[in-house]
Write a structure and sequence with these properties.
Blueprint lengths: L1 H15 L3 H34 L5 H10 L5 H12 L14 H37 L4 H11 L1 H16 L3 H7 L9 H11 L2 H31 L1
Length: 232
């Protein structure tokens, strides 16, 4: 128990002392996750809204597939990414393996289904309520999509926060394609894994505490939005 208390105290000192190594790892993690979620937003918002608006053969199957991808195993995504980005793979000529770019790509694959699924459900609900009015006004699907997303903005924000939480906590896929290289691809989760195996608990705990604080913050925002929506 004493060893754990000592490790926690050292971890807190690292956090509040402005340790350069610690904050470089945090900054890289946030950059990679933020970029991946940005890709998920660019792809997921219009895709989710389009699934709600446009009827086409196989739409139900596609919706089921998107929702199934919410449980996509990260290590499988990492393995697929490794095979695609390795020198022998079809994307090997870009030299992305063991770079932050590769980590962004696998995180984007993992987070995009989250955004699409949540946005689709929200847009579908709003389309059922307001679709007739939009059609009477002669609005096209492309014109309707931004309005639906604006009406469902709280659910859209929830989707973004859920994707960010998923990305920031990822370890399985990014360690496969990133290699956990110090100063290059070492993020909070991969550092926790490495330092724990080395017995360097203060640094691992410090990063763990930061992850917990980020997770609490994101969930707090999501619950606040949900409560506000219910109160209205």
């Amino acid at each position: 128990m004493g060893d754990f208390r000592d490790a926690v105290e050292l971890a807190l000192r690292l956090i509040f002392s402005g340790d350069a190594t610690l904050y470089a790892i945090i900054a890289l993690s946030l950059w990679i996750s933020g970029f991946a979620v940005a890709i998920a937003i660019v792809v997921g918002l219009p895709a989710g809204a389009a699934l709600a608006i446009y009827p086409f053969p196989g739409r139900r199957v596609l919706v089921i597939l998107v929702n199934s991808l919410l449980g996509l195993p990260p290590v499988l995504v990492g393995l697929a990414g490794y095979l695609l980005l390795s020198r022998a793979g079809p994307l090997g000529r870009f030299g992305l393996l063991y770079t932050p770019g590769a980590m962004v790509l696998v995180q984007a694959v993992l987070t995009t289904p989250i955004v699409v699924a949540i946005v689709h459900r929200a847009a579908q609900e709003q389309w059922a309520k307001h679709g007739d009015a939009f059609q009477v006004a002669g609005a096209t699907g492309l014109q309707v999509m931004p309005h639906l997303l604006l009406i469902a903005r709280r659910q859209v924000l929830t989707a973004v926060l859920a994707a960010l939480g998923r990305a920031i906590s990822e370890v399985g896929a990014i360690v496969i394609v990133g290699g956990n290289i110090a100063g290059v691809t070492r993020t909070m989760t991969t550092t926790i894994m490495l330092e724990t195996s080395k017995g360097n608990l203060p640094l691992a705990l410090a990063l763990g505490l930061v992850l917990v604080m980020i997770s609490i913050g994101l969930n707090g925002i999501a619950f606040a939005l949900a409560d506000r929506r219910e109160s209205r």
